[in-house]
């Protein structure tokens, strides 16, 4: 339907200089908005027509008047309700809708007479026939025959609130440079066929829309874990820490457990908690002297410790595993540090993957990332550890910390770290920490006045809190929505205000 109206409008313009949307709509009995909409759609096809907007004042029917236009005026209906010869009892007549106005108007027009001698009074016709002039006027206004708001009869209708002034927005439309009565949908693209056939010279192209949004270029984006990792890295670097090499996911039990004074019967070394490798299943090369000292400290005790007093097995220490914590990396670094001629204080950190044979749920996966920091220096105390932890977590926006005694085979004392989460309104565990045991440090070759403080936390947990992710499977694994990575903002861990 709208395309046939398009054709009609174009045909009209081919023989007329100008089209006025208001009068065109009225002449054809069309809705004005439909005509304006059609003009708009022709304009969108290219440089076919030009339009100019105008406003003008006119008169229109009120809602009440539309009822009168349809059903007749009140006075006319009153007259019609009176039987021609005998008349009607007045109370009966006044029951009609809008009888009061109708009766008053009909009386003043001299259409009726009232016989007050009978009880109740009788109303009778005074003339034989009447014309419904009001309805007729409304018709003329409706069909735009009558538009002058100052005409006497119009003023009268305005007083009766049947007619009101209205503003009309209409358009005058003229032909433009690309005018044609035969418009086809313009081409949006230049094709190789058009070039070959030469039709590009004559086809109608859609004008360029410089306001259109372009196609989004595809781009790579960083996973939230990588963004948060970068932030943590920055914090360590600011604090003067050096990153440790963490490129070996495969570790052997010696560096992952034994060197950390973790007994060979410890539950963490069970297949239920640790992934063991089948190929290659074992490592056979170790620093021999160091291995002997580690064996001794476990089996018989040494360096002032009575050890665990059990039958330490070489084949158990040889077993290859996927490292269960990055403390294995720290251990290798500390051993190297201990081999240097003179001791040099050091601050190291790492952020990388570890693997555990966990039951998977919304907060646990078989692989996750650990963040770990350590400081080796002369005579460090638990007070130093607590001080460094406050400094570190303050940079993450956490100022309220609590420490709870804990147990790790390789640290004494050990502390779980809790931070008060303002959003969750409760204390949440944010990490684990401690001072490495002499049973771990002395076999490496450190002197007794060297102590090492260390702490570790997961990368996933703060990432989930920062990005509002409740299920770890929405962060890592095959069910991750890649759009989540695109939409997520850059990461800024806001440091707590410094108190200095
Ligand atoms: N390795 C510990 C863990 O996996 C974390 C830790 C690191 C604890 C350093 C103490 C010292 O939870």
UniProtKB/TrEMBL annotation:
Cofactor(s) in the UniProt record: Mg(2+)
Domain Aminoacyl-transfer RNA synthetases class-II family profile: 227-478
Record carries keyword Nucleotide-binding: yes
Entry GO CC: cytosol; phenylalanine-tRNA ligase complex
Subcellular location per the Swiss-Prot or TrEMBL entry: Cytoplasm
GO molecular function, one term: phenylalanine-tRNA ligase activity
CDD domains in UniProt: PheRS_alpha_core (cd00496)
Pfam families named in the record: PheRS_DBD1 (PF18552), PheRS_DBD3 (PF18553), tRNA-synt_2d (PF01409)
SUPFAM superfamilies in the record: Class II aaRS and biotin synthetases
GO biological process, one term: phenylalanyl-tRNA aminoacylation
InterPro entries: aa-tRNA-synth_II, aa-tRNA-synth_II/BPL/LPL, Phe-tRNA-synth_IIc_asu, Phenylalanyl-tRNA_Synthase, PheRS_DBD1, PheRS_DBD3
EC nos: 6.1.1.20
Stored PROSITE patterns: AA_TRNA_LIGASE_II
Subunit annotation: Tetramer of two alpha and two beta subunits.
PANTHER family xref list: PHENYLALANINE--TRNA LIGASE ALPHA SUBUNIT, PHENYLALANYL-TRNA SYNTHETASE
Family according to the record: Belongs to the class-II aminoacyl-tRNA synthetase family. Phe-tRNA synthetase alpha subunit type 2 subfamily.
Name of the featured protein: phenylalanine--tRNA ligase
Organism: Adineta ricciae (Rotifer)
